[in-house]
Each structure stands twice: as C-alpha cells, then as structure tokens.
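pasting for ref. prot 1 ->
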Amino acid sequence: MSTTFTSRRTEVLAGISSFLATMYIIVVNPAILSQADLPFSGVLTATVLLSFFCSLMMGLYARNPIVVAPGMGMNAFFTFTTVKGMGIRPEIALGAVFWSGVLFLLLSIFNVRSAIVRAIPQPLRYAVSAGIGLFVTLIGFENARFIVANPATLVSIAHFNDPIVLTFVFGLLLMSVLVVRDVPGGIIVGIILTTLVAWPIGRYWGDASAINFGQKTLVNFQGVLAAPDFSLLGKLDLMGSLSWSLWPVIFAFAFTDLFDSLSTFVGVAEAGGLQDEDGQPRNLNRSLMTDAVATTLAGIFGTSPGTAYIESAVGIAQGGRTGLTAVVAGCCFLPFLFLSPLLSIIPAIATAPALVLVGAFMMKPITRIDWSQLDDALPAFLALVLIPFSYSITQGLIWGFLSWTVIKVAVGKSREVSTGLWIVDVFCVLALTSGH
C-alpha cells in the first residue's frame, strides 16, 4: 500500500512540476494573440480550457505524462504571419486552425502521417524547429522594443537610456539565471518579478517611454477575479477559412504541428524511458490523436493550435511516468479561468524575455544537422534563416522543401527526393503562385 501511495504522490508532484514549467503559456499566449485583435481575456479562457481538456485526454486516453497547451511558434504564426502578415481576419484564421486539426485527425486515423514524416528530410525538420525558435526570439525582442526598425540598416538595437529596454534586459537576465539554476516555475517567477519592476514606468518615472510604448502606464491593476470570458467560443469562420488561398496556411499549421509533436514525443520518451518494445514513443498513435484533437478544439475555443509540450520533461524528471501526471497538470490550469484581470496587468516587456528563452530552447535540433554535408545543410540553412528573416514560417518551409529538391536533383541524388516530397513541392509552388 505504501508503495502505491508513494507512486501516486510522485505522480502528483510531477504533475505540479510540469504545470509550473508550462504555466507561462497562460500569460504569453494571450499576450501574443491579443496583437491579432483577439481579446486578452477571451484568449486566456481558451488557453486554459484547451490546456485542461487536452492534458486530461493525454493522461486518460494516451496514458502519457505529457502536458498539452497552445504551442509557442504556432501562436506567432497565427498572429504575425496569418493575421497581420496576410491581412486575414482572426475569425477566418481560427477556422484555418480548426481545419488543420481536422486534416491532422484524418492523417492520424488513416495513418498517412508516417508516409508524410518519411517524406520530409530529417535535416529540414531540425531546421524548421530551430527557425521557429529564432522567429519567437525575434518577436520577443520586438515586443520589448529591444530590436527596432532602422531605415538605414532595417533593424538596430534600441537606446539603453530607455527604462523599458533596461527593464527588459533585467527580466531577461533574471529569467535566464532562474532557468539555469532549475528554479521551479522559473519563467513565471521571472515574468512576475519583471512586472513588478515595470510598475513605476509611466507612474513615477519614464512617462515618455511608456507613451512611446503605446500606453500611459505599462502596468494597470484592474482587479483579481472575474468570470471566464467565453466571447471567442465558436467564433471561428468555417466556410471563409476554406478559401483556396488559405490552404497553404492550413497545411503549415497541420504539418508544423505534426513535426513539433513527433519531436516532442521522441524527446520526452528518450528522457523518461517511455518507449514501447519497438523502441518507439509509448502510445504514439493515441498521443498524436490527442494532439490532433487539441488543434481542432483550439479553433473552436478561440486560440492557436495546441500541441504537446517539451517542458513535460520537467515532470518526468521528477518521476512522472503515467497519465496521472498529465491529469494533475491539466487540473492545475483550471483555477486561472477566473484570474484574467490579475494576469492582464502583465506587460509585453515581462513576457518578452520568456519568448527569447523559449527560442533558445528550440535551437537544440540544429546540432543534429551535418553541416559538412552541403547538399543537406544548405536547404536546412535556408529554412532556418528565412523563417525569422521573412517573418513567415510558411516561407521557411516552402524554400526549405523546394531548395532540397532542386539541389538533390542537380547533384545527381534525386533518389533522396521521395514521392511524398514531390507532392509537398507541388503545394509549395501553388502557395508561391497564389501570392502567399
């Protein structure tokens, strides 16, 4: 009996640890999607609901100790590429998220995903993951006004006599130290402390800085509790999002989510010894099905696609091995449904350091690219750099795939271009000719 009790206690503590490692998404996701003209409180409600229900599904159905929540990178793609870059209404973008989830579900049900995964060269998968990390980092620097536009050089570093920039630097260094020292919930602790430091801006000093940032004051206390905001529930435009011009967006959502999920499941399984007898991640089919459901529900709830979180490795390191870990983590999200006024006080310069660090976490896969093999490395490099430089995950994917095909054919290695990749290339060309 004591062994069972200890085991359950370990799983509960592991679930709390995983939640602390992932709870920053409750603040960061609304902060990003609110820039796509979606209400902060509505996105917060959608984020919590998605994280709660889908983490429970991961625990009870897939029986894996993995947290599911709106994915970093996907929220940036939703806001800065789809809504702001392409000028698509948020409701239509939510519809695209829904259809990408349906596509992901179909790929999972009919097991097409394995053929697709085999079609995409491994170096490109690594490069896209790292490229999204650079994209998220760039957004973090931009949100903090640390990187600013410059007509002579396109971009430049901001002046360090600005209290907002100094506050961001403080938050970045503080959060980095907390994460390196493995402080539980280090990112969320850093966000809270940076918010406290930002409080005087616009109140006691630096009024001009706050006004230049678009606000009279950076931190505005509006209370602690409020009823959940369900204004985004069911607001997606299903028919408008089926426009031909949006299929590249649906494709990018679905396949980026697929690659991200697979890499997460593989990484977490290796970290925790959660493989089956064939050496594959445990319950992979059910886990991918859960991920697909998360993306479908995301469109309905009113947020960007959901995905498995690599931060779940924190709970696994604490001893989490069963679905109970994910269930506990999911339940920890639920109370935050009622805290939108309190969380909305957190300014962009407090969440910006978290974006920079998340970008750093996503860079690890590039170490697995053989940079001496140029016919592999050059397409991977193009995918890596074009995602942040073009401000578009889609463009990075397109040019990575197309350059891989052209280079391999030109050097006499056309056998390394699979039939599946040729099909993907057709979609890439259609995406370019459609103007997106």
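and prot 2 ->
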Amino acid sequence: MKPDCIVHVIDDDEAVRESLAFLLLASGYTARTYSSADEFLSILDQIAHGCVVTDIRMPGMDGLDLVSHLQDIRPVLPVIVITGHADVPLAVQAMKAGARDFIEKPFDDHSILEAVASALQSGDEISAGRTPAHVVRQRIAVLTNRERQVLRGLVDGQSNKAIARELEISPRTIEIYRANLMTKMDARTLSELVRMALVAGEQLAYPSTPPSLT
C-alpha cells in the first residue's frame, strides 16, 4: 500500500470509526482511527501523506477548528468533514476554512469512497477534476435572481429554514430551488455546489448583469 493511500478517521463514536475503517480496508486503503482531534494531532509530526476524514462535532477540538489548524500547519493534508443535517452550515464554514469536501449523514459507501479517492489525488489531478472557474461562472450567469439568493444563503452557511425566513418563502420552496440549483450547476452533492460557488467568487456576490426576477 502506498503511503499516500492512508486515511485518518477521527470520530468520538467508536462504532462509526470501526465501520469506516472496515469499509476503507475492504476498498484497499490503509485506515488509522482516532477518538479525538487531539489524539490525531499528537502524532501529526509522524504523518506526511494521506487524507483525513473527521466528524464535525467532537469533544475538545471540533472538526471545524481542526480544519483551520491543519490549514495553518499542514495545508497539503486534505480533510473531508462528516456532518449531520443540522451541521451543514458548520460544514460550509469548514470548506471556506480549507476542507476538501463534506459528507452528510447518513452517507452511503459510494459517497465516502468517492470523496476519499478524490482527496487522495495529487494537486494537479484535483485541479483537473474540478469544474473550471469560467464554466462555473457561465452556469451562475443563467440562474434566476431567486436561485442566486438561495445559493448565496447556502454559501453563507445558512440552513434551509434560515434562508426561507430571510426570503419570506417556505422551507419546502427552498428545497425546490436547491434541487434546481443542483441541476443547473451540474452538481452531484451539496458540497460540490458550495465549492463551485466559492470558485465563482465575486460574480456570485455582485453579478455583472441583472438576472431574471423569477
């Protein structure tokens, strides 16, 4: 097994750690498990390659703080954040802080393995696998005004309910707009949608041409 195929799993739930380790081992990876971010950081100087899969909510240092810390001292180590539905705003913050991806619970085997495979690629391959910025901007250019508003809310880390309150529409309508965004942006997951929006940068915040009002 190549050293860059090591996956470091951090979760305070032993059952989750062991389940993920079993899946990763069965898929050909080397898996190492830790019950806390502090335990992982205590041996960080021994780690040169691989990726990290961490829960967002843990006793002591949480997943968000871990992402920020690793960006400061080991930015080449990609991090995938595991999050519950209510923690998606925190996961978005983690992506802004430098996380490679986030996976919502309950997740299927394919989702986590795909995220790990992507994270373990080299920097050039990761860049090649992402949608180019000019393509993202073209997709955003055809969004309606309301769709842009919903997308901005998601990128700001807001929940569906919070976006619904701000726009004075129902949470169910927000779900419909989110589904439309996924289709128009050609995003398979919410984390991919958020990543695209972050790539678009200022165009999302200040569109050059007024979009439609629908």
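The chain has two domains: 3-128, 130-205.
The mean pLDDT is 85.
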